[in-house]
Design a protein that fits this description.
Layout: E1 2-4, E2 12-14, H1 19-36, H2 43-65, H3 69-77, H4 80-94, H5 99-115
Helix pairs in contact: 1-2, 2-4
Length: 116
Amino acid sequence: MKIKVSQLSNRMHEVKTSNRNMEKMYDLQLMMAKGDDIQDKEPIEIIKIQRDMLRGLTEFLTTVLGLNKQEQEKLADMEFKPTIEAANYIFERMMGMSDEDIDLAAKKQDASKSKD
């Protein structure tokens, strides 16, 4: 499928939902979930988990999108939040959601947050 990650470039990236790429996605999602469960961890362990998650994110984006050197440099200089957003967008697309589905889900989430 063609995916454009505007935070990195204007070009479309060919992303395959091959078993290899899907496994990379699930590995990263698992790592991110473990990164959310840190309340009983020591500070050094927390830092290692977060560092490994950041490395996993950049490796995932670089590999799955096939980033060129210029895009890799842009990724290295990106803020953390847009990096997470880019990865989540790719996860959603790889799991079969269209851009319209993603927009609709985001609107529903925003609407439920505004009710609180």
